[in-house]
């Protein structure tokens, strides 16, 4: 399996790590995580906990875009070596995005989001 496909796996796992962060904040805020109705409990969070869940939702959205991008570059015949630096950069931008989101660093979060989108656009252009 090529590096860009390993990057897809990393990007697909990122929302799960953010879910664990959200679970930590649910336990911290409410004494325990409610597995019977976790979304209702998460909706009551404020501060870093609420941002962890927002980061998780955003990470799922980004995972869809990135997965489609890597499949498109592969189908178009773009060599993995040409896609690898951009795929790795995307993973780095998305990890930073989650960290910045939870820490409420809005400008850094927006820059990391834009960096990730630039990677996606670049990959599509290279595959054209």
Task: Describe the structure concisely.
This protein has 5 helices and no strands. With 128 residues, it is mostly helical. The model has no long low-confidence stretch (mean pLDDT 96).
Quick one: overall form? elongated
Number of helices: 5
CATH fold descriptor: Four Helix Bundle (Hemerythrin (Met), subunit A)
Architecture, CATH level 2? Answer: Up-down Bundle
Strand content: under 5%
- SSE pattern: HHHHH
The overall pLDDT, averaged over residues, is 96
- Fraction of residues in helices? over 70%
Question: Strand tally, please?
Answer: 0
Low-confidence stretches: none
Count of the separate structural domains: 1
- Radius of gyration of CA atoms, rounded to a whole number: 16 Å
**CATH class assignment:** Mainly Alpha
Distance between the termini: 22 Å
Largest sheet: none
CATH homologous superfamily assignment:
Membrane associated eicosanoid/glutathione metabolism-like domain
Write the layout of secondary structure elements.
Blueprint: H1 3-30, H2 38-43, H3 48-75, H4 80-102, H5 106-127
Helix pairs in contact: 1-3, 1-4, 3-4, 3-5, 4-5
Walk me through this protein's architecture.
The chain contains five helices and no strands. It has 128 residues and is an all-alpha fold. It has one domain: Four Helix Bundle (Hemerythrin (Met), subunit A). The radius of gyration is 16 Å and the shape is elongated. The model has no long low-confidence stretch (mean pLDDT 96).
